[in-house]
Write a structure and sequence with these properties.
Strand order of the largest sheet: 2-3-4-1-5
Number of strands: 10
Helix content: 55-70%
Strand content: 5-15%
Number of helices: 34
Shape: elongated
Length: 731
Amino acid sequence: MNSRGVRGLWGLAGAVGAFAAVAAGWQVVGDVGAAQYAFAGVTALCGGAFAWYQADATVTPAAPRGVVPRELPRDIADFTGRVTELAELRRVLRGPGQSSGPLVAVAGKGGLGKTTLAVRAAQRLVGDYPDGQLFANLRGYDPLPAEPAEILGTFLRSLGTDPRAIPDAPYDREQLFRTLTAGRRLLIVLDNANGPRQVRPLLPGGPGAGVIVTSRVELRSIEGAHTVVLDLLEPGEAVELLGRVAGRDRVADDPPTARRLAELCGYLPLAVRIAGARLAERPDLRLTEFAGRLADERDRLDQLGIGDLDVRSTFMISHRGLPEAQQRAFRLLGLFPGSDFAAWPLGALMGVPLREAERHLDALVAAQLLDAIGPDETGSARYRFHDLLRALAREQPEPDAAAAVGRLLGAYISLAALAEDRFQPGELRKTSAHPRHAVEAEHRDELLRDPIAWFIAERQNVVACVRAAHERELWDATWELTHIAAPFFEMLAFWDGWGVAVDLALDAARRSHNRWAESITLFDNGALYRDLGRPDEALAAYEGALAGYEASGDEHGVGAVMLVQGIIHRNRGAWEVAAQRLGDAAQRLRAAGDGRLAAQAVRSLAVVRCGQRRVAEAVPLFEEALEEFRRLGDRRAEAYAWRGLAQAQLDGGELSAAARSFDKSLELTRQLRDRRGEARALQGLGRVGAAEGVTATALRRYAQARQIADETHDQVLAGELDADVAAVGRP
């Protein structure tokens, strides 16, 4: 019942009470006459009726036009950056109104300074809204968010409405609020909204009032809203804010450490402000010491809190507002070892279908707990944590952590193996006992439509997963993922990542006392050394692999080692040793059922015959290898065979045929994005040009090859190209 009804009942109660009192007096005392009784009754009835009339006649008065609310919070003196966003807010809110006033929704994750920006913009716009400014904290992510009716009651009082005249019904409050704001130039700031439901009832009527809403979610579904999404501060702005809070001189005395502190704060304004306040509180605390404390991710959030400002609490507000399934997704993503990821790793971590994982990711992005960063080389959407949010996710306890990481590694091994099958068909792979985790077939085929693109997108994550497997003492996963990825590492010249992975894999094999796995990893280590132009170290690694394979009875492994040893001896010009090794390798590999590596041995033997100037024997060997690679669909090996055949044709004086074969090799290597293979094909075309006497063409091809050699740090090729250029001479 509303307040008017209550007052009416009191009036009636007064009338009835008066009658009762008179009647009681008459009966007890007996000295009240009938006329007196009638008069008293009429008087009581009149009083009650008057009270009822007053209650019924109390209509809502219009608020006094002279009331001008000034409710904006204090603007902070050390406001930093946001020049573009501030100008955008002021431009929109100064624009002409249409059927409704201008509305700007400022969105972004917690700690970005949305409220600070909104207050700064509103303070600068006071002159444009002379009828006043209203401010409300909607407490959108508190356990009990503010109800719109509650805020409307506050606004109506601020606009001069008698509290007794404020309607109880939410809809009536909305109507009255729109009536009172329809003709006014008011600016309304609605801070910390949790969604459109909380905002719509608070929007004023008429074109004169402007509104700024801040929220952790984007409010694009509100009609007419102009959205401004805040991002992190620029590095220079973050350092400037640090100096304003901690002291400019203190920051100016050590610019490198100040920049490092801003970076460790993730350029998040709240974190930078807290760091500055911590330093201001402790004049004796050196910047380097504080940076050292923040460098440990496990302790970083503990350091970023002071007084009522706390990064962890700010982020946890968004986390607590999520359903349990999405909270679990957030926790499990904290286990992901890489920097950015597609949807399928979350599916593996959670053990759920891809579409469900995508829904969870969308929800985390909407809650500003995750950033969507666009498609990768496969066309898949990718996501990334802010550094401090990743630290928060990693400190959340997750009982399924060990099993989740096992599934993730199993998914990477499964996809990498499938990618290698498509990249190098016919490969006989050496596998471990680590359990596989299958990615749904439809999505798997989409991901691996271009296996090289998939590996380019995931190459950093592959290394991170190898490291994670090693840290968790999952030895089989450590060496197998490294072994499967080796051909991709090699082709893309990803030397640093490959080196890290191989070192971890070798340590894992030795810790698990797995001699066979150690041999596999030594083989990969030898390949890395060979590609880096360190043949002696490569041969030493191959000798270790050979001993392990022989001890394990792995004839296929023995043949593979003989193949690469033969290639190294071939490159050194030890033709006879190379021919013997390669011939033995081809025989062993055929017996083991590996036609692809056997064809590699044949191709390498053909290169030896060219080195021995036995070109007539080399050409049919190249053609034999080409036929096998085509049968298998191994385009990379085919590209290399075309290059070998071209060299044989060049040595035999068949320049036109050599040019066509080098062109074939160049076409395939470019399709495969094999930079080193491309450089070798360009070198061959340069040599054809030199043999034809077309010096300009030769030098142009050599220059193209040299650029790739420099990019891939291929010192062997660079040295050969220098010699080629010297042989041609400059025009």
